Amino acid sequence: MVEVSYYCPYCGAVTSVDRAPELRDGSVRAHPDPDRQYADTTGDLEAADGIEFVCLGDVDAPDRGSGRPETGDVTFRTDRQDGPIPGKDGCGRTFYLNYYRSPAWIERRT
To answer: What integer pLDDT is reported at residue 28 of this predicted model?
Structure first.
């Protein structure tokens, strides 16, 4: 297992999960894709098409830098340089990680 971190597309807080290293990230999105099945962070991550996260933030977040890109109607926070503030960061909204779908992955799943 490896620990992998993701930025919340709503507030920029960092959320982490332990997962198998062979799972390949495709994209992090604010909204789910209707043709995918998502596991929660404590579910069977390998059997799903991606992961459903609830933004809780991570008090040990690395420096994000400034000028995070905008994603559609969602803007990344750029006002903090030193990670989330315990008890104040993490917006509680749900966001989604989609796994990369290689031809071999699709064939294995069917």
So the answer is: 93
Alpha helices in 1-110 (DSSP H): 103-109
φ, ψ of residue 35 to 5 degrees: the values are -95, 15
User: How many other C-beta atoms can be found within 10 angstroms of the C-beta atom of residue 95?
Assistant: 23
What pLDDT is stored for residue 91 in this prediction?
85
Output the pLDDT for position 61. 47
Bridge-based pairing of strands 74-75 and 70-71 is antiparallel
How many C-beta atoms lie closer than 10 Å to residue 23's C-beta?
A: 18
| Interatomic CA distance for residues 64 and 33, integer angstroms | 27
Residue 53's domain comprises: 2-109
**58 neighbors 16 (Cβ within 8 angstroms):** yes
Residues of the chain with pLDDT under 50: 59-78, 84, 86
Number of domain units in the chain: 1
Q: How far apart are the first and last CA of the chain?
A: 25
